[in-house]
Records
---
Amino acid sequence: MENLWNEYSPLIIEYGTGLIYAILVLVIGLYIVSLITKSAKKLMMKGALDISLVPFLTSLINIGLKILVVISALSMLGIEMTSFIALLGAAGLAVGMALSGTLQNFAGGVIILILKPFKVGDVIEAQGYIGSVKEILIFNTILTTFDNKSIILPNGSLATGSMVNYTSQETRRVDWKFGIAYGDDSDHAKKVMMDLITADERVLQDPPPFVALSELGDSSVNFVVRAWVNAGDYWPVFFEMNEKVYKTFSKEGLHIPFPQMDIHLDK
């Protein structure tokens, strides 16, 4: 035992010391990375940086620093980093081919944050979902729907697919379609609808509201009503106008028809 100890003790001491140093570097390094990540996030939140970039950049800083800490810890063990980096590159190529969809989502996240087709807080419609953008992460974007469901959308398809941003413009046009019965006074109906829409202070006068007879339908004479409002007033104005028309038409002698069919029987 004494001979074995005398023979291998230098190696045990050398590698044991390196292992202890590597563990210390790893533990202390990860702790420092956590502090740096938190500090960087606080600085970005306080600064003028777009809030959409904060989660993305925080994740990049965290991952990048952790990789440096791991490489430093491995070098303390005497591992040749040139060979390790070459091996890591080969493994990265294989993993990249296997995770091509994930890398596409990463690239999509970068494109979204650079081009900014939408930002946190915008209301968008994409891939069959409508909601407010809650977070833009490295690989996906999280929407919160109007009924408070969380929808996770991959950034790759968001960056390359079609999308509607409802809040990118300050104003929006509200469209309605109202019908009256055949035999009702069309001029009176136009005046009633125009009076209702212009009485709403949220409706913008430039461009002016528009009312026109658009269609002679099977069961009704249909009118189109259009008005411009601030984007935040879209749904309140839309719903209230529907209610006002329903309550006012009956008072003004106008009738909202339902689908009907006349059947003639021959003897």
---
Amino acid sequence: MTGAPNDDGTDAAAPVDETPDPPHWLRNVILFLSGQTVTLFGSMLVQYAVFWYLTITYQSGLVMALAAVFGFLPQAVVSIFGGVWADRHNRKYLIMGADAAIALTTLALALIMMTGYDAVWLIFATMAIRSAGAGIQMPAVSALIPQIVPTRNLIRVNGINGSIQSAMMLLAPAAAGGLYAWASAASDGTAASLIPIFFIDVVTAVIGVGIVALIPVATIRRAGDVETGYFADLVDGVRYIVHHAFVRWLLVLFAIIFLLTVAPSNLTPLMLVRTFPAGEAQDVVNLAVLEIAFSVGMMLGGILVASFFAKRSRIGLIVISSLIFGALSIGLGLSSNIWVFFGFMFLVGLAVPFFSTPSMTLLQETVEPERQGRVFGFVGIVMAVAMPIGMVVFGPLADVVSIEVLLIAAGVLTFVVVGLAVWLPAGQRAITAARRAAAVGEANPAAAPAAVEAEMHTKDS
């Protein structure tokens, strides 16, 4: 029996959580985050360098749109199956296998480029394969974290993970900028400047896979241990999301943010090169500063969430940060000074953990362990589809309309659509259910998923 929730979202009469901690959880978390950090660093070097190469070389919104399509759409397709695999197989091996496949693809691209063949379609093809690997890895990583972390520590570990990733996002663009500038000078600005960065990515992937291999991770046993087919699992996952009002609402909000905020934000490097041109060498420096400003903000935001906002309302953080994204998009569009532009990008980074960390934590807290892989797979699908759709619209428009106007329009639309998502009756029901689950979860983490279902059934009746 639980009491009414306090103002801070905790249960006034909550019993102590008696769920045993996973064995050696702290050691395993440190190893897992370390392995993911090393791998992430190499991947980010490639991401920044490739994006900068395409931006500086082509300066085309259409090329940026194609890069988004090849970089995200395969992830959406593969995530349909990746979520099912994450619920059926050992998540650790899925993560290791995806990292290894991505590294081999990158190595093959580097070796081909060493022969002098560097057509842009080859870069797009490699981006597509790397994106497909992310479709396997993302749901497995998101579902593995609550498997090795005590529920009471989830938001703190997610916040720390976000801060580590942000620190890598701070280091990676600086390192990528130096490496790219050096390699570009040696190769006269051709695509061959990417080769050294590709080799670094392969090495970091090998190290990361080796570290993750040290973590003991069991395959999740389903309730009742009933064997079903892949298609049945997929259908069950779709049915679960369709009938789970809170998960459905959160996925819609993810789509809104990625469509109206993340997609146009990907045009900020192009805006930087067009609006504040400074020559190729200085453009690389400015692009690196832009990414560093975002990363510093994101790192500080992750620290704030983990340190001071772990007990705050998850829903409150999600809604407020969503509206802030709209305001910052307008600010980016109105920037007439490069340092003001950098300042707004810092604030965008600062706001990201206030959206992403509580979103992931709520899903980890409210979805049954045996379904988390599929749910996070659909999260990956939503993000991977919304982003390229947004870029398909905003990218070509950026060649006929100023990016500043697009950013302002996207910010205004974000206000309108997020407001509707919050104030419509369906949104209100989902928010109420999530708050109730958070209160129950403080008392008994294992009961949180059932609390959401019970709340939604009560509202529906």
---
Amino acid sequence: MTYCVGLLLKAGMVLLSDTRTNAGLDNIATYRKLFTFEVPGERAIAIMTAGNLSVTQTTIARLEEEMSDDPDVDHSRSILKAPTMLRVAELVGETLSQVRGEIAGRMAGAEAIASASMIVAGQRRGGGMRMFLVYQEGNFIEATEDTPFLQIGEHKYGKPILDRVVTPDLGLAEARKAVLLSMDSTLRSNLSVGMPLDMAIIAADDLRISERARIEAGDARFAAMSEAWSQALRDAFRRIEI
């Protein structure tokens, strides 16, 4: 399984994913689930994936092919040429739906096994920042000021802290902390989510990937943050009277 979370804020967008993929207790592997694409100064796009690995990898491969320099490829469906972020979400949804249908068709009766979803976030020159949760059927919902974050995968463990602290006015430093603590809660409660972690930040109107980071297992700063959060929760628990 996986956990991916994206925040849409006035200051920018913060995205975080794990990298664990399970095919049974004795078959655990690491695969990137956060992909970034950019034309600096013109647009920046990030895509996070969850679900059937064959579906998501094939979908990303087809999207990348549309962006390639191959002269034999019709680039009219490239997300790097789409006129709006809405059209980017539509192209991702159409590709995901097509791939999922093809794979499910070859796996008779395995529609549920071929399930997948994606978070698509970005900004193009002249447009605002937008973030979408794209379902396997190709339809999508959009993050708003009322709901400034989206999650896919094993989202329930990391949702409570987001509900309590995330607002559109949250700064990028605090937003980074919020998604990392959300991930930490998920890592502690679900063994199907695991390190390393991939993070991307797109600052408002930066029109490029402002920051990329991979957080490896054993990272000292992440471990210190995790322990500080655990201690803070224990202290708060002891102080509360009922």
---
Amino acid sequence: MPIRIPDQLPAASVLAEEQIFVMSEERATHQDIRPLELLILNLMPLKIITESQYLRKLSNTPLQVNITLLRIDDHESRHTPKSHLDAFYRGFQEVRDRRYDGMIVTGAALDRMPFEEVRYWDRLNEILHWSASHVTSTLFSCWAASAALQVFYDLPRQERERKLSGVFRQDLRHGTDPLVRGFDDHFLAPHSRYVDFPVARIEEETDLSILADGPETGVYLAVSPSRRQVYVTGHPEYDADTLAQEYRRDLGAGGRPTLPENYFPYDDPSFSPSCVWRSHASILFSNWLNYYVYQATAYDLSEIGRE
């Protein structure tokens, strides 16, 4: 899929080196088609890395997609240059009157903080409610999935005693749903969270359809009846070394992090891990864009949310 992003975005050169088709703004203006409009609300601290991870996964279909990067507020970032945010990100006030075919809300490093103490909780609540009427389908990742459960189902976050970190087996439950078309019956996915998503709780207290889960992870993939909301409790967008970087970061900060399970060869962090979830991740994002966004969205953007 040719994803259309600003020519100077750092991810453009990263993806080009990987032979991933990134369409320049100049070339895109000469294509006589209606591209999909995709909004990414990036809540992760290392925004430039996260941009590349998601754009890499969104690059696997023949659809042309225009990417708009959204920041939650104007708070100064310790991990991303202000010049980068000013150049490539928009504020909510700039997009609130528009409608989008798809939206991704990333995870955030806020697992152990009560929602009401999150600096931008009121704004996030506003954006999530806005997405329900202005976006054809929104995908929530990890912490954002727990936030969306609170907003849409009044379901308080439930914490685990120990952090879930590693690569875990997921079991397919509803193989007929187009979102999981092409999935193996069992597949692997990385997780990094304190939030818990017990299967019984999601079944009893929401109307979500659980498409995949695992004995260690609980719910992994669930969707609303309208398919307007997709909940992914793991991090299929992660690179092979992302969990290793998180582990070493926490070690360097003086913590005693849990060694990611099923990740380092021989459970030895001196060995380089392999990416064993790449194919599943590519299929997930490709299916979401095709079946939940492209096949469902209105041709006239102004009609989205008004059906």
